Each structure stands twice: as structure tokens, then as C-alpha cells.
Automatic annotation (TrEMBL):
Protein name listed in UniProt: Cytochrome P450 12e1 mitochondrial
PROSITE patterns named in the record: CYTOCHROME_P450
A GO term for molecular function: iron ion binding
Pfam family, one: p450
Organism: Biomphalaria pfeifferi
Superkingdom assignment: Eukaryota
UniProt KW Iron-sulfur keyword: no
Length: 377
């Protein structure tokens, strides 16, 4: 909190909060997305396997940024170490959700079952990150000695290690947070977007036509390509509106007593702000998935006066999500490359999915997607 938080966050902001920060990783993220599509096209995966694949894709993309390397989440049989990381991350956020909602209180005073499960999951995650961070650090040292390392290249770990006021423990803490939260959130957001596109085939086809118009069948996606795809951005934003990725986009501890809607709230009380963007007073047909409402040349955009502030999936202000540009880039690339080659559909048992929060929004049971190759010509 306060200055302690700012000391840790400021170095990350310098690299990841710039407008073009994600673009530096675009080449590697293209390769990761290509591998993701190859797996979908060649393997007939069941619902649970598909959900795991979303997690593997997001973790691989996050590793490119955090550890400056490919970690192998999409290469053949998943190793025990990488599999344990995915399981631990899932467990960790489930526990955190229960703690936030008050389902666990004993952990404050003794090492309850919740405390032990959390410590075990965090230990697995921390151990995995420590191994990758050590390898990345060794590569940096080798490149320094060889004279092949430049200060201008985008390298999160290098940037953090150069900060004189950061201890190695501080660096490890930030790497764990970015890697774990980035991987888990991106996977869930992508799965939800695919669900909304599968539920709305006309919207999916309209997006596919925008992709074909921009890329045709060109494999490599550039920053300019993404910038020109307004409907792609609208589809993701509308998915955020209907399915907020977190139940409390912002949590604030105000330094003074305040009165909110007639309730006296003492200073330092956690205030959770739910992103309610389904009010009929703010949106026309609020329960309908309608990306057109976000297009500036569409009349619906003018009818939604709350459009600019109603959907804030990554928070607002200095405490907003540091990895948001990276996450969105990964989501855009996966969506583009899948729709270039396949149609996203749902098996009957997943036609009407119930979602729950485990910090991040996720289906109560894994969604059984059906990916069908497009007919050539």
C-alpha cells in the first residue's frame, strides 16, 4: 500500500504501461498463437482439455513477457512442473475468492486448511517462477559478457534488475504476480469471448469478414492490422460488458470517512466496486451481445452515454492492471488466427453456460467448444 506499493509498481509501469509496450512482443506472440491454432486444428479435445489449452496458451504468452523466453506450455506432452503450475494457479485464485467473500476467516489467526492450501499453491507457483527467473537471469549475464545485450530492447526482467531500490525478493514478487495473474486472467477472458462468439454466429461471421478484409490469409499479424480492426475491439469490449472478468474491478481503501448512498463508511474500509453494465438505463437491449454499440459510426454508440466509463475490466487510474496491453494482444491474436481457419461452435451441453467468479469469471463447468475448419474457397 502507499509508498511501498508505488516503489514496486513504478518500474513495471515504465515498461508495460506505454502505448506500444505489447508491440515489442508481437513477433513471439504471433508464434504462440500459431501453435495454439495448430493444436485446435489437429486435436479433438474434450471440454476439460480445451479449458486447459486456454490456460496453456495464456501461460506461454505471459512467459514470453515475464521471463523473455518460451516455456513450453504448448509443446507436446505437458511436463509435470508446468502442469503443477497451472493447477496451483487455479487453486490459488479459488482460495482468494473465498477469502474475499468471507468464506474463510480462521486463516487470520491459525494455519487453517485454507491457509495450508494457499501456502502449498503459492509454494508451487513461487518455485516454478524462481526456476524460470534464474534461467532468465543467467541468459542476461551471458549476453552481457558476450556484448549482445542492449538497454533499448524490451526486457522486463532486465528492467527490474537494474532498479537500484528493488531487492531481488521484490523482483521475484512482481514476477510471480504478473506471470500468475496474467496467465489466469487471459485464459478466462479468451474462453468467455469465444463463448460469446459461438453463441452469436452472425457476429462471429461479421468479425471473420473484417479479419479477411484486413489480412486475407496472411499469417503474420502486425500492430497496424490490429489497430485497423475496430469490430474485433468492439467484440471484446462487449464481452467485457456482458461478462465482467472480475467481480470487483476496483477495490479502494479511502483515507477518510465517507457517506455512500446514505451509508457511513469508516476510513480504511475496503470498498468493492462492481462493474454493473447491464442497466437498461445505460444500454439499449442490455442483455444482448451487440458489439455494434461500441462503434463510433453506429447510432447505438450515441444512445449509450455511459459507454466510455461503464466498462473498465482492467480498473482505472494508477492501480489499473499493469499487464492489460499484453493480455489484450494475446486475446486479439488468438481470436484472429482461429477465425481465419475455423468456425467456433458449441456442443449442445454447452449451449447455456453458467458462470461463476474465482477472482476471474469462469464457466461453472468447462465449455465444450466445437472448432470446425472453414471450407476453402
Amino acid at each position: 500500500q502507499g509508498e511501498d506499493w508505488h516503489k514496486l509498481r513504478a518500474p513495471i509501469n515504465k515498461l508495460l504501461m506505454k502505448v506500444d509496450s505489447a508491440t515489442h512482443y508481437l513477433e513471439h506472440h504471433n508464434q504462440v498463437a500459431n501453435k495454439f491454432v495448430d493444436i485446435l486444428a489437429t486435436q479433438n479435445l474434450k471440454a476439460q482439455e480445451l479449458q486447459t489449452l486456454f490456460a496453456r496458451y495464456a501461460a506461454e504468452g505471459a512467459g514470453v513477457v515475464v521471463f523473455n523466453t518460451r516455456l513450453g506450455f504448448l509443446e507436446g506432452q505437458l511436463s509435470e512442473e508446468l502442469s503443477d503450475f497451472l493447477d496451483a494457479a487455479k487453486k490459488l485464485f479459488s482460495i482468494l475468492q473465498d477469502v474475499i467473500l468471507g468464506k474463510s476467516v480462521g486463516h487470520r489467526w491459525y494455519k487453517s486448511r485454507t491457509y495450508q492450501d494457499y501456502a502449498r499453491a503459492l509454494g508451487i507457483i513461487g518455485g516454478s517462477c524462481a526456476v524460470h527467473a534464474l534461467k532468465a537471469h543467467q541468459v542476461l549475464e551471458e549476453r552481457k559478457r558476450a556484448g549482445t545485450l542492449t538497454n533499448e530492447e524490451p526486457n522486463l526482467l532486465l528492467s527490474l534488475l537494474k532498479e537500484e531500490n528493488l531487492q531481488r525478493a521484490d523482483v521475484d514478487t512482481m514476477l510471480i504476480s504478473l506471470y500468475t495473474a496474467g496467465a489466469e486472467s487471459t485464459a478466462k477472458i479468451l474462453e468467455t469471448l469465444f463463448y460469446n462468439l459461438a453463441k452469436n454466429p452472425e457476429t462471429q461471421e461479421k468479425l471473420r469478414q473484417e479479419i479477411f478484409k484486413t489480412l486475407n490469409m496472411r499469417d503474420h499479424v502486425t500492430a497496424t492490422d490490429i489497430a485497423n480492426m475496430s469490430y474485433l475491439k468492439a467484440c471484446l469490449k462487449e464481452s467485457f460488458r456482458l461478462c465482467p472478468p472480475v467481480c470487483n474491478t476496483m477495490v479502494r481503501l479511502l483515507p477518510i470517512d465517507v457517506c455512500l448512498s446514505g451509508y457511513n463508511v469508516p476510513a480504511r474500509t475496503p470498498i468493492m466496486i462492481y462493474p454493473n453494465a447491464k442497466c437498461i438505463s445505460g444500454f439499449q437491449d442490455p442483455l444482448t451481445y451487440m458489439p455494434e454499440r461500441w462503434l463510433q459510426n453506429n447510432g447505438l454508440a450515441k444512445q449509450d452515454p455511459l459507454a466510455k466509463i461503464a466498462v473498465l475490466p482492467f480498473g482505472l487510474g494508477p492501480r489499473n492492471c499493469a499487464g492489460q496491453r499484453i493480455a489484450v494482444q494475446e486475446i486479439y491474436l488468438a481470436t484472429i488466427k482461429v477465425l481465419q481457419k475455423m468456425r467456433i461452435e458449441l456442443h449442445p451441453e454447452s449451449s447455456d453456460v453458467e458462470f461463476v467468479y474465482r477472482i476471474f469469471l469462469q464457466p461453472k463447468i468447462p465449455i465444450h467448444f466445437k472448432f470446425t475448419a472453414l471450407q476453402k474457397g
